[in-house]
Amino acid sequence: MIVLSWGFMPMLVLTRKPNQSIMIGDDIEVTVLEVRGEQVRIGINAPKQIPVHRREIYDEIQRQRAEAAASSTGDRPVEEKTPNAVESSEREPQDVTSD
Q1: Alpha-carbon gap, residue 6 to 20, rounded angstroms
Q2: Using CA atoms, how far apart are residues 33 and 23, in angstroms rounded to an integer?
Q3: Is 31 helix (H, G, I), strand (E, B) or coil?
Q4: Could you read off the pLDDT of 71-81 as tens digits, one per residue?
């Protein structure tokens, strides 16, 4: 186990092989499915009420929420949903590969 400082918070760094998992609390399991070169496919098993997004999607949602909050003070309206966002109630296993 290695603890690195990444930005303002320390980060726990674990080494896992394909088909090995880590648990986050009692309800979230992250499994390494496959390693291909520099790409790692992971599976996340979490309760439907816990949103799970790739970081770039999460950042876009946060940006849109900030714009929507600003628009409520008289600025322009902003659509809340991104095309790649998946509602937690719609979540099904899927292969999401990003280059």
Answers
A1: 24
A2: 15
A3: strand
A4: 887 655 455 55
The amino acid at residue 54 is R
Q: Which residues contact 47 (CB under 8 A, 6 or more apart)?
A: 27, 28
DSSP 6-44: ETTEEEEE----TT-EEEETTTEEEEEEEEETTEEEEEE
Helix (H, G, I), strand (E, B) or coil at 61: helix
Alpha-carbon gap, residue 58 to 73, rounded angstroms: 24
**Cβ neighbours for 86, distance < 8 A, ≥ 6 positions apart:** 53
What distance in Å separates the CA atoms of residue 30 and residue 45, rounded to the nearest whole number? Answer: 6
* Higher pLDDT, residue 41 or 79: 41
Q: Is the pTM of this model over 0.85?
A: no
The model's confidence at residue 89, banded by pLDDT at 50, 70 and 90, is very low
Q: How many residues does the chain have?
A: 99
